[in-house]
Amino acid sequence: MPPPLSLYVHYPWCIAKCPYCDFNSHEKKAGVDSAAYVRQLAADIRESRALGYGRSLTGIYFGGGTPSLMSPKDVTDVLDAARDTFGLPDEITLESNPSTFERDKFEAFRAAGVTRVSIGVQSFQDDKLRTLGRVHSADEAVRAVSSAVEIFDRVNLDLMYGLPAQTLEDALSDMEQACSSGAGHVSWYQLTIEPRTVFHRRPPPLLPVEKQALEMEEAGLEKLAAAGFRRYEISAFAKGDEACRHNLNYWQFGDYVGIGAGAHGKLTREDGAIRTSFIRQPRRFSQEIPDRFSETPIAEESMPVEFMMNALRLIDGVDEALFAARTGVPLVRIQRTLDELRATGLMRADRIGLTAKGLRLLDSVVGEFLE
Hints:
By secondary structure, this protein is an alpha/beta fold.
């Protein structure tokens, strides 16, 4: 049986590029032919029918960039292509920036089929937003979230900690506002300085030291738990059944079709698994040129570490049987490594998953599965 399948759609444009962002995103300027780009998205989805082997989708995710810059017609056209090719799943997520929020537009997104929005709030404090280069205000964030929980079935808030000049009280104020917003999902993660970003070239001053960031994390975890959010992935927290199905499929090493400039996919075929990718430049993506799409086999010896990079992010881990089912590699190949990590208290004894100690050392544990 092939793994479950999801669809990722990449919209590469933003109002402005954030200084911490290392995604394939670009400031949208005059002359950008977004209509041609959307037409190509729809065409590529239809052409991907063979890649999916007729499977239905567990989820669709519009990421970016800022997909909420798309028009409702754009979103409808893409979803029409997905419906014709795979059928539509119950969960269709669209990432949004509060500065792009217009109630009528978001109601039209809902009518087009979007059931879940992920709002890039990052902070509810204007000084922190300015430091992060965000183009929205705290007030815009509050109004966007308030309307979103009225319009959509499911709402996620992206929130960051470890920000320049941020205190523990600042971080907890943001967390309290997120927990009381009515959103059923929070993605909460520390600001990291990534290569090839403005912050990497010019680091912001007054970044919290490791001890301060750890205090923010631990206090925030307590707030989330008290508000009824369950931590199901290292940086993802959900009430009830609001865990993101599309992302769960990633972390359980499922398959996904990636469409758009720089979008990556992972697909399982009878002769093994492959990675797929599209050319990164949005203008060239929209053109029929050689090498705009590529496929690369995943070597069998890479399968254990590829699997662990995803599955070990899940707080509950996964059943041992899932390893062979998703990788095609027998569990015995990694049994010695599992036993050694369990003996040191880094992995659970009952399944493939990390202990609380192991979660703190995720990258080191994953590295043990390199061959």
